[in-house]
Amino acid sequence: MAGATVTVEGILTQDSRAKGGFGGFYLQQADHQTDGNPATSEALFIYTDREIADVGMRCLLYTSPSPRD
User: Fold this and answer.
1) In what order do the strands lie in the sheet with 24-28?
2) Looking at the 3D structure of the chain, how many domains does it have?
3) From CA 53, how far away is CA 68, in angstroms rounded?
4) Tally of CB atoms within 10 A around 45
5) Cα separation of 51 and 63, whole Å?
6) 68 is a domain residue
7) Domain that holds residue 13
8) Is residue 31 part of a domain?
């Protein structure tokens, strides 16, 4: 998937873009969308320094990042 553009939907659970943060934000699947498998992740970290709209935690976001290894 490296270099491809994908669109993901998730609930904003942590915004770590502020100074001293991780340089991105976490998105998590809604509970009704999970696969119930404890060996798989229901969240991902989007590394970016770009601004996003002023949204609060638990807001549903759509983004189209370019995956990298």
Assistant:
1) 43-47, 24-28, 8-15, 60-63
2) 1
3) 24
4) 14
5) 12
6) no
7) 8-63
8) yes
Q: Which residue has the higher pLDDT, 69 or 55?
A: 55
Tell me which DSSP letter residue 58 carries.
Answer: T
**CA-closest candidate to residue 22, choices 54, 1, 45:** 45
Is the separation of the CB atoms in 45 and 69 below 8 Å? no
3 domain residue, yes or no: no
Tokens of 42: 């229901």
Please indicate, yes or no, if residue 16 is contained in any of the structural domains.
Answer: yes
pTM of the model: 0.69
Contact 27, 44 (CB under 8 A): yes
Residues 3-41 have pLDDT tens digits of: 777 888 889 898 888 888 888 888 999 888 899 999 999
